[in-house]
Amino acid sequence: MADSSNWTSIATAARVAEASRLMLVEHSLGDLKSGELDLFFTAIIIEEQSTDPVFSRSQLRKQPMTRRKDRQTLTRLLNSLLERGLFQRPRSSKMNSYRLSQRVLDLKQFVGRGARERPGPAAGVWQSLLTMAYLYQASETMDYTQILGPLTNTEKDVLYAFVLVIDTEDKTSATTGEVKNTALLANTGNATLTRALKSLVDKELIQLVPGQRAKHYQLGRRVVEVMQRRSSRSGLFRQEQS
Q1: Exposure pattern of 215-232 as b/e (b: 16+ CB <10 Å)?
Q2: Cβ contacts of residue 158 below 8 Å, gap of 6+?
Q3: CB atoms within 10 A of CB 99
Q4: pLDDT 10s digits, 55-104
Q5: Whose CA is closest to 208, among 200, 192, 155?
Q6: SS3 per residue for 32-49
Q7: Contact at 8 Å (CB) between 211 and 198?
């Protein structure tokens, strides 16, 4: 019998990933991709747990969400978050040091002094970011490799998008148009999406549904293996016959 807890973990991770993107867009912090989210939420957690707001590359490489990223990928992601105005370089620190930008840190500032000190008007946003950071870290650091195999960030986003559409809408398949409408793929180009789809089909994580006028994809053999065979709640488990 397949382990349904694995499926629950994957579905939860998909929902957390989408909710993270929606929250950042809602608060005008940008539409971040998976790798950028890993770095941004790691910095949020470091800021909350450390007395020193400055962090180095070596610190990042010890954190759960960023320790597997190679040097080139980490450099690219850091530069992207600097360009987005979410990170900044401290003026009097080592070259490979970073911190959250003042724009982000302003979300946790207090107003008033002494006994009258209280959270500022944006403090609720900071707490929401922190909560989402911990949820995201918990879901993203689960080891899915044995279940799904190694995936790029884009492949993971595309797979999560299919999971969301199929599970949420009680469907057995979804079109590329439907998954493009999710927050996970809102800014993914058609060429990038096409490459990710091909790779996921090759890995047997999704598959084309035959006999459909538009291209419909259903979850592939390797994903189905971690799902329950039947569910009274969702049509997700009624795999169409090919």
Answers
A1: ebbbbbeebbebbbeeee
A2: 179, 184, 185, 188, 193, 196, 197, 200
A3: 19
A4: 999 889 889 888 888 899 999 999 999 999 999 998 876 678 999 998 88
A5: 200
A6: CCHHHHHHHHHHHHHHHH
A7: no
Which is more confidently placed, 202 or 229? 202
Q: What would the pLDDT profile of 207-225 be if each residue is shown by its tens digit?
A: 999 887 678 899 888 777 7
Q: Which residues pair with 219 in a beta bridge?
A: 206
The verdict on pTM exceeding 0.90 is no
Q: Residue 119: what are its φ and ψ, rounded to 5°?
A: -60, 140
Residue 229 scores a pLDDT above 60: no
Q: Which two tokens stand for residue 157?
A: 């986003």
Q: Where are the beta strands (DSSP E) in 65-156?
A: 87-88, 97-100, 110-111, 118-119
d(CA 240, CA 220): 10
CA dist 164 to 43, 209, 230, Å? 27, 18, 18
Cβ atoms 187, 31 nearer than 8 A = yes
- Residues listed for the chain: 242
Residue 218's DSSP bridge partners are: 207
Higher pLDDT: 119 or 159? It is 159
Dihedral pair phi/psi, residue 171, rounded to 5°: -115, 170
Neighbours of 171 (CB within 10 A): 18
d(CA 127, CA 132): 8
CA dist., res. 184 & res. 67, Å (int): 23
DSSP assigned state of 142? S
Average confidence (pLDDT) over 133-158: 77
